[in-house]
Amino acid sequence: MSDRESDLLRARQEKLERLRARGIDPYPPHFHRTHTSQQAIEIFQEAEAKDGAAARTGPVVAAGRITAMRGMGKASFLDLRDGTGRLQAHLRSDILGPQYDLVGDLDLGDFLGAKGPLFKTRRGEITLEATEITVLSKAIAPPPEKWHGLKDVEVRYRQRYLDLMANPEVQAIFRNRSRIVSYIRRFMDGRGFIEVETPVMVHVPAGAMARPFVTKHNALDRTLYLRIATELHLKRLIVGGMDRVYEIGKVFRNEGIDLDHNPEFTTMESYEAYADYNDVMRMVEEMTAGAAQEVLGAATVTFHDNEINLAPPWPRLSLVEELRKAGVDIERHDTNDKLVAAATELGVSIQRTESRGSIIDKLVGALIEPKLIQPTFLVDYPVEMSPLAKAKPGDPRYVERFEAFIGGMEVANSFTELNDPIVQRQRFEDQERLRRQFGDEDFDRLDEDFLESLEYGMPPTGGLGVGIDRLVMVLTGQRSIRDVLLFPQLRSM
Question: Which one, out of 21, 126, 298, 395, has a CA that is 20 to 30 A from the CA of 262?
Answer without folding.
Answer: 298
